[in-house]
Amino acid sequence: MKNTIFRIEGLRCDGCASTIKVLLDKEPGVKAVSVSFASGEARVLYDPGIVTEDRLAATIERPGYRVTARQ
Amino acid sequence: MKNTIFRIEGLRCDGCASTIKVLLDKEPGVKAVSVSFASGEARVLYDPGIVTEDRLAATIERPGYRVTARQ
Prior knowledge:
The structure is a homodimer.
Chain A: E1 2-9, H1 14-25, E2 30-36, E3 41-46, H2 53-61, E4 66-70
Antiparallel strand pairs in A: 1-3, 1-4, 2-3
């Protein structure tokens, strides 16, 4: 299991954060997600044998947000 | 093919609208989606043999929005 924190640019409200959480929760291999508008970060716990960090970043970016850092 | 307009309460910005669009696009049976923050509406074209109106409403509501009318 792997944990990655994605720094997200473009989050404008708590609604955005909640909706990105639902999008990430739908990805196969994702075990836990928290997304914070206040910190502009998504924390994702996932099985890297099922889903890649790149795919998770692409999921976040699809509606128009931008991942500016991962740690 | 069926077209439903969902009136949505709780959309606070364009980012919310874009992210709900991506969520709806992921549903099997959905052919076209537009979501407008300005009008507070999602217009969805879908195959009612594959996905129900109730399921689409549930998808919109999962992040915390509320469907107040359908037409």
